[in-house]
Amino acid sequence: MSLCSDCVKGVRHEGTPEGKFEFIRGVRCYVGTPSGEYNKEKAVLFLPDVFGIDLINAQLLVDDFARNGFKTIAIDYFNGDPLQEDAFVGGKYDIPAWLAKHGNDQTRPNVDKVISALKEQGVKDFGTTGYCFGARYGFDLAFENISKVSVVSHPSLLEVPEDLQKYKKLSQAPLLINSCTVDETFPRDSQAEADRILGNGEQFTETYRREYFEGCTHGFTLRGDLSQPEVKAGREGSFKASVLFFKKYL
After folding, report:
1. How buried is residue 77: exposed, middle or buried, by Cβ count under 10 Å (0-12/13-18/19+)?
2. Cys bridge to 151: 29, 66, 129, 216, which one at CB 3.0-4.6 A?
3. How far apart are alpha carbons 214 and 198 in whole angstroms?
4. The 149-153 sheet, strands edge to edge
5. Can you tell me whether residue 213 is helix, strand or coil?
6. Per-position DSSP letters for 81-120, written without gaps between them
7. 113 backbone dihedrals φ, ψ, rounded to 5°
8. Is the pLDDT of residue 224 over 90?
9. Which pLDDT score is estimated for 90?
10. Which candidate, 78, 76, 61, 69, places its Cα nearest to that of 42?
11. How far is Cα 26 from Cα 28, in angstroms, rounded to an integer?
12. DSSP reduced 3-state for 132
């Protein structure tokens, strides 16, 4: 399991965040809350990539989910130590060394604390949307059937085919994968394996969907260059697919 060079590339998006930072069971989170009435027994856990919850791109996506009726909580599982944005413009980082300090033992406890606190607040059903690094926890929460529905976008840190087989065996959560043309961590052969294992050879079934966005590169949903028409269409298309999936299954 590893990250690729595209995991640390991207473009900063423009906009004004509407959510707020708050501490949930001592864990710093960025929270988007719908402005109108919404079902308080449901919540979406936003599982960010290596740039964490302070990247404005992530905050704007959280706000977009909230605008569509889902209370959405982005979790800082990096304990204030994500990769910095200067990686976008050539900043040098020792990715293996950073990953070694941000493994399951260091990051998973914050996820569990937030889930426990939200359950105490009355949340019964969780959806997850995981990006790159965050897709690992999207799968893990589905394995444990903590999540009711899973969305992953350009996933990293998965073992293929083992994690796909484990998902089919253990999870009851419908799964949407947002995939793309250029992706070292989830390439076309892994995408085909997902269809074979989870879709019984099909790209779209009742509880499994793999959207594919031509001309896009790993990271397109969260860090893509929106001045490029294919990337803008991919970002918008993947978000629409995610919202529709949550509306159907969460």
Report:
1. buried
2. 129
3. 21
4. 20-24, 27-32, 72-75, 42-47, 125-131, 149-153, 175-182, 208-217
5. strand
6. -PPPGGGGGT----HHHHHHTSSHHHHHHHHHHHHHHHHH
7. -65, -45
8. no
9. 60
10. 69
11. 7
12. coil
Q: Could you give the CA distance from residue 163 to residue 208 in angstroms, rounded to a whole number?
A: 15
Contacts of 183 (CB under 8 A, 6+ apart): 4, 6, 154, 217, 218
Q: Which two tokens stand for residue 232?
A: 């803008």
Residues 210 and 177 sit within 8 Å (Cβ to Cβ) = yes
**Rounded alpha-carbon distances, angstroms, from residue 174 to 68, 108, 156, 206:** 20, 22, 19, 8
**Quick one: how many helices (H) and strands (E) in the chain?**
8, 8
Alpha helices (H) in the chain, listed in sequence order: 56-67, 95-100, 104-120, 133-143, 162-170, 188-198, 220-223, 229-249
Using the predicted structure, report yes or no on whether residue 180 has a pLDDT greater than 70: yes
pLDDT of residue 7 exceeding 50, the answer is: no
Whether residue 75 is predicted with pLDDT greater than 50 in this model: the reply is yes
Distances (CA, A) of 132 to 16, 40, 117, 152, 158: 24, 28, 25, 8, 10
